Amino acid sequence: MQFRPGAELHDHEGKWCGMTEQLGGLTDLAVSSVGGRVVYANDQLFADRRNLIRPEPSAYQVETYGPDGKIYDGWETRRRRDPEGRPGHDFAIVRLGIPGRVRSVVVDTAHFRGNYPPFASVEATATEGYPVAQDLPESAWTTILPKAALKGNTENVFDVVSDRRWTHLRLSIYPDGGVARFRVLGEPVPDPRHLTGTIDLAALANGGAVVGCSDMFYSSAGKLILPGDPLTTEGGWENARRRDGGNDWVLFALAGAGTIRRAVIDTSYFLGNAPGEVRLTGTTAPEDESSWAELLPRQPLRADSVHRLRIGRDLVTHVRMDVYPDGGMSRVRLLGELNEDALNTLTLRYLAALPDEHLEELLLAVPELSLEDADALRASRGSLVAVPGVLRHYLLD
Hints:
Helix content: 10-25%
Oligomer: single chain
CATH superfamily of the largest domain: Galactose-binding domain-like
Structural class: mainly beta
Number of strands: 20
Shape: flat
CATH class of the largest domain: Mainly Beta
Strand content: 25-35%
Number of domains: 3
């Protein structure tokens, strides 16, 4: 079995496949296609804040003018004119579609040449629920990118050094101007409260990943595990037509070791280009070829159909989907339960990644937790091997 750990970011026509779907790479935690939202901007006179996290690259049309001036595919604020000469700055707040650790941010000023902001900074916060983010006190925000210089018409990429799990980011621009796209590249850290019972073990939001595939000529295999349902074939995975007698495949790494009960193989919108057949195999040791066991025997698929299939219940960490001979599909869901060890590991990872303020908010919600257990968790949460019983009951039961 040959695995391909990486893949090109663009397909054969140069269309953007999206950092979310980049194999073996980081996930765009903020993009609208995974549920990210720009929940507030202090100004958006020239161009809507929601453009910041659209999945496609910013487009530019020469003759696009509206009543307020040139129309840009991005976020653009008015020119600042404070009568008292105070500098001030503009900002937008993004609620991440998938909370997680941020490894880098991209402040893309594509097409903004004489109206881009000369500087930007990024602040982050994390909290329970869905707060009114613009009303949070300044003390709630942590700087993860200090004020940095930007270039116009450029993908300005900045590394971020932070091991905390963030739920919201604030992009501040100095003093004003336009930004085409804001990408937040990182690693999902799912909340264990959403990982109990039967879940989609392959879903990106739950910590699953596409770690290899045979071909993604038309569109990325990473789209198979995105939230929601696509509206066209562009939203799914499609490979080239095979002429060599072989078949195409995708390799999924699950959120953790688990038992799969059902698979959903969705070929919606793929009419003359769906695969003819499918087969699923699984393992807990992907490099050991002898360890792979059949979960779903090779069987026919129908075009433009949602297939709900019962499958073998072996404990697995990786699943390979073979399609015969080739073709595309919209989504793959692998529904089952994580085992106790996996849930424990993911819960400890979540607790270790919480910013101090978020951890305190969580501990206050569990009044039964003893002071000794709370102090021990604060002091050594990165090296704990088990979750305190009362807290485990609150999070997982």
